[in-house]
Amino acid sequence: MTTTPLSIREQLLALDERCFEQPASDWAGEIALPTELARFYREVGPCDCNLDTAGNPFFIPSLARLWKQQAGYRWHGLTGERLAGWSDDWIVVADQGADPFILECSTGRVLFDQHGGPWAPAPMFDDLWQMTACLATFARVWRCADEDIFAEDCSVNPIYRRKLIGELAQLLNDARRAEDLASEFGW
User: Fold this and answer.
1) Does pTM surpass 0.90?
2) Which InterPro entries match (predicted)?
3) Tens-place pLDDT, residues 67-122
4) Among candidates 99, 7, 2, 15, which has minimal Cα distance to 49?
């Protein structure tokens, strides 16, 4: 499975999500826009994408909205006070029900953590492209399954879990990581 910026954009568009080139001038941040993040929004350009999956949808904000998404992580959403425990090297690039996907700017990796702290995010994806391709895969398999997504016990139908894991394994080049990822997100 290809994870070029164009193929990732095509995957999002096939899910009826908006994607378009977003210039660095859309960034409203108080820090410099990381080069890799600027490239991601220029080449893939997700624009407030809501990707359905088991549980809350994955949300990838537009570049113009991205800095506001840091509220509650980098600073207190009401007072604006800087929050302890949040690294200057981190930018929340997506979330699922407030659980953040965090770009570690110095490495380009995407980390993940449960909200509520203390923060101890763990590496989840090699980069933004892999993250987006995987999250889009969750959404595509979810959508294709339609009403057949759940088994009688209300768990995800094992047929679709296997399908998801197979597709994720191709993206991650690792079947074990694919299984862990599926389990992490309730599949």
Assistant:
1) yes
2) Knr4/Smi1-like_sf
3) 999 999 999 989 989 998 999 999 999 999 999 999 999 999 999 999 987 999 99
4) 15
Max Cα distance, the chain (Å)? 50
Please report, in angstroms and rounded to a whole number, the separation of the first and last CA atoms in the chain: 21
157: its two tokens: 């139908």
Query: Cα-flanking dihedrals φ and ψ of residue 23, to 5°?
Result: -70, 155
Spatial separation of the C-alpha atoms in residues 76 and 50, rounded to whole Å:
24
Alpha carbon 61 to chain centroid distance? 10
Among candidates 84, 87, 11, which has minimal Cα distance to 44?
11
The DSSP line for 91-135 is: EEEEEETTEEEEEETTT--EEE--TTSS---EEEESSHHHHHHHH
Please tell me the distance from the alpha carbon of residue 144 to that of residue 108, in angstroms, as a whole number: 31
User: Which token pair is 136?
Assistant: 């889009």
3-state secondary structure of 15: coil
Q: Which parts of the chain have pLDDT scores under 70?
A: 1-2
CA angle 122, 73, 181 (to 5 degrees): 30
